[in-house]
Structures are given as structure tokens and as C-alpha cells.
Specification:
- By secondary structure, the chain is α/β, with parallel strands linked by helices.
- The protein contains nine helices and five strands; from the N terminus they run H-E-H-E-H-H-H-E-H-E-H-H-E-H.
- It has a five-stranded parallel β-sheet with strand order 2-3-1-4-5.
- The relative contact order is 0.16.
- It binds shikimate-3-phosphate.
């Protein structure tokens, strides 16, 4: 390894450690549409930060003892959404972790509030072509089991993007490999931290002055 590479590596390691430390008990919460790569990117992000990874959809399935397709078919979407809200509220108590949520989760005001309280939200934003390419690989998404899944996706983009835009961090996914996405997320978290740190330090000095 060249000297420059080794300096970059140790800088990255320091950044990762600082991000992990800054979380305390909070979670990094991935949001975005079906096919955005929340689970795949989330798993790699968790590994880089040496944090546990949790997939909300898998936890909902485990709690129900049924697949998401079965829950939708047997009880309907409203029932699924109630379960989703409860499961995510419970999972958010278990930070620090990287938590990937299903595409509809952040649309729920209670869940959005819980995420704001217990975590940093990261929107993986992808265009229609990328999303359709990715969701086309699997048939496990009840909302897309229709004649024209692309029309549904377009509608969801129109409805959800303005709400997703409320996330703390937005990462444009394009067709970049997952590792590149992870790098972009780490960069965004590090620069957020760099902006916050002077303020946190000022607050500490202020508090110290008050107690002196
Ligand atoms: C949904 C997204 C799915 C899953 C459910 C509903 C949505 O998760 O929660 O099928 O409303 O967008 P993914 O975003 O992980 O595919």
C-alpha cells in the first residue's frame, strides 16, 4: 500500500469510528421506493460501520409468521401497515443499527416521527428505469403484482418523493454498485457530522460557562 493509500485508509477508519460513536443509541434508517437497494446497501453499510443490520420487512414477516405477500392477500394493506408501524417502533428501540424499511414505512406520520426521534433517515433515490429493472428480478411485492407495474411505480414516485424529501440525507443511487453507494452515504454522514460538531462543541462550552 502506498503512503497516500494508507493515509486515506486510516482517515476512513477514523471517519467510520466517529460516525458510529455519534449515533449513540440511534439508528441509520434507509428509506426509499421498492428496488432502491435499501436492504442490499444497508447490509453493506452496517458491515462497514461494524453495526448490526435489521430489515424491517423480514422482522414483520417473522412477527406474523407469514410472508408480506400472504399478509396482504389474507388481511389487506391496512393491516400490514399497522403491523409495520408497530414493528418499526419496536426496532427503533434497539439502536445503534442500520435499519432498512419497506418503501411505504416513511409515509406513515407516526413512523416518520419515530425515525426522527431515534435515527438519521437516508433516502436512496433512484430513477424509474433503475427501480423497474431491480424490482423486475423478483415477484415478492404485492403492490406491483398488477398488469402495469410501471404505472404503479410512477404513481408511487409522485406521491412519495415529496415526503421522502424530508429525510435527513438524500443519496442519488443511479446504477452505481452498492459499495459506491455505501461510500457516498459515509461521505454524507461524515460531512453532516463535521457541520454538527462545532455546534455541539459551542453548546458544551456554553453549558460549561453556565455551571461555572
Ligand atoms: C412496500 C414495499 C415493500 C414492502 C411491501 C410494501 C411499499 O418493501 O414493505 O411490499 O409500500 O412500497 P421494499 O421497499 O423493501 O420492497
Amino acid at each position: 500500500m502506498t503512503q497516500r493509500n494508507s493515509a486515506q485508509h486510516s482517515n476512513r477508519r477514523r471517519q467510520l469510528a466517529e460516525i458510529r460513536q455519534s449515533l449513540g443509541q440511534n439508528s441509520l434508517v434507509l428509506i426509499g421506493l421498492m428496488g432502491a437497494g435499501k436492504s442490499a446497501v444497508g447490509r453493506r453499510l452496517a458491515a462497514s460501520l461494524d453495526l448490526p443490520f435489521t430489515d424491517a420487512d423480514s422482522e414483520i414477516e417473522a412477527a406474523a409468521g407469514q410472508s408480506i405477500g400472504e399478509i396482504f392477500a389474507e388481511y389487506g394493506e391496512a393491516y400490514f401497515r399497522t403491523g409495520e408501524r408497530k414493528v418499526i417502533a419496536r426496532l427503533l428501540e434497539n439502536g445503534p443499527q442500520v435499519l432498512a424499511t419497506g418503501g411505504g414505512a416513511f409515509m406513515d406520520p407516526e413512523t416518520r416521527d419515530a425515525i426522527k426521534t431515534h435515527g438519521t433517515s437516508i433516502w436512496l433515490k433512484a430513477n424509474l428505469r433503475v427501480l423497474m429493472k431491480r424490482v423486475g428480478r423478483r415477484d415478492n411485492r404485492p403492490l406491483l403484482q398488477v398488469d402495469n407495474p410501471e404505472a404503479v411505480m410512477k404513481k408511487l414516485m409522485a406521491e412519495r418523493h415529496p415526503i421522502y424529501a424530508d429525510a435527513d440525507i438524500t443519496i442519488e443511487t443511479r446504477e452505481a454498485p452498492h459499495e459506491v453507494m455505501v461510500g457516498n452515504i459515509v461521505d454524507a454522514l461524515a460531512s453532516r457530522l463535521a457541520q454538527e460538531t462545532p455546534r455541539a462543541t459551542d453548546d458544551r462550552i456554553e453549558r460549561q460557562r453556565e455551571t461555572d
